[in-house]
Amino acid sequence: MKEARGIQYQDRREAPIGVFDSGVGGLTVVREILRQLPAEGITYFGDTARVPYGSKSRETIVRYSRQIIRFLMTRGVKAIVVACNTVSAYALEELRPEVEVPIIGVVKPGAKMAASVTRNGKIGVIGTEGTIGSGIYTSFLRELRPDIQVLGKACPLFVPLAEEGWLEGEVPMLVAKSYLTKLRHSGIDTLILGCTHYPLLRPAIAEVMGPEVTLVNPAYETAVSLRSLLQEQRLDKQGAEEGKAPLCEFFVSDAAEWFNRFAGRILPTGIANTRQIPIEEY
After folding, report:
1. Please, is 43 exposed, middle or buried when counting C-beta atoms within 10 Å of its C-beta (0-12, 13-18, 19+)?
2. What range defines the domain where residue 88 resides?
3. DSSP code of 274?
4. Both 143 and 89 in a single domain?
5. 195 catalytic per annotation
6. Alpha-carbon distance 171 to 164, whole Å?
7. Which of 192, 195, 219, 252 does the annotation list as catalytic?
8. What is the pLDDT of residue 3?
9. In the listed set 218, 237, 262, which residue is the last one of a domain according to the structure?
10. Do residues 211 and 233 share a domain?
11. pLDDT tens, residue by residue, 56-92
């Protein structure tokens, strides 16, 4: 993949970080990046016209991801975060050699943390049908520790609950109990929140799983890994100008107003300038 023409930065450290997701869930990754790397600018793309990716074929996911990466490169990004477990599972390794900037996903950082904190080697993973069906977390975890036992559970209703803002109360608790009760009694001591929407439902998930189970948020771990990557490659921004917030820009393929409302519940400061673009042209 050749770098598309677009914005160019004389000092690469000043360039933004590109982040993309199949929709809005990747904003939980953006939130963690803003917390961990407050000087960095961000260019986010959410493919709201073609969500969800979990039901798409691998070939389609790769094609969509190539289009998005081409667009992000026109914005002059210095690194790309694939803030989507499905893309991380099905497309990241194929795309990595084609991209001229560092690119990371959300699966490996979460898997590394889970492998390091488990006490009994029994780890649960919850995610979309696509992520669980791919077995990607199991593969990474067993590369790290061959003795690890992994139990996966797809929790598809968590996504619409998060997007509708039903984060607390009876409904999310009932759904969480339905999905997670068997996992709680399976003997796992660590649970990976393997979908970027799921950290929004952390209170309900934590209550069902109980205090003896450690919850791993790959969004947080990805932000930490990104910080290390930028430092290693000397791409980290040295500090924001006093009184001047770094540039954060948001793009979607559809439903910009709805995206703005959702982002207002997720990010520390709301946004109102999301732009809709014809992603199929890239």
Report:
1. buried
2. 12-105+220-281
3. -
4. no
5. yes
6. 12
7. 195
8. 45
9. 218
10. no
11. 889 999 999 999 999 999 999 999 999 998 899 889 9
- Cβ atoms of 23 and 46 within 8 Å: the answer is yes
Q: Which of 197, 222, 209, 221 is nearest to 124 (CA)?
A: 209
What are 32's two structure tokens? 């963690």
The domain that holds 153 is classified in CATH as: 3.40.50.1860
pTM: 0.91
Distances (CA, A) of 103 to 49, 50, 67, 144, 201: 24, 22, 15, 21, 27
pLDDT per position as a tens digit, 32-42 = 999 999 999 99
Cα 151 to Cα 124: distance, rounded to the nearest angstrom: 5
Residue 248 appears among annotated catalytic residues: no
214 and 112 in a single domain? The answer is yes
Domain tally, the chain: 2
DSSP, res 200: G
Please tell me which residue in 84, 183, 193, 209 is annotated as part of the active site: 84
* Residue length of the chain: 282
206 CB burial (10 A radius; 0-12, 13-18, 19+): middle
**Per-residue pLDDT reduced to its tens digit, 102-142:** 999 999 999 999 999 999 999 999 998 888 988 999 999 99
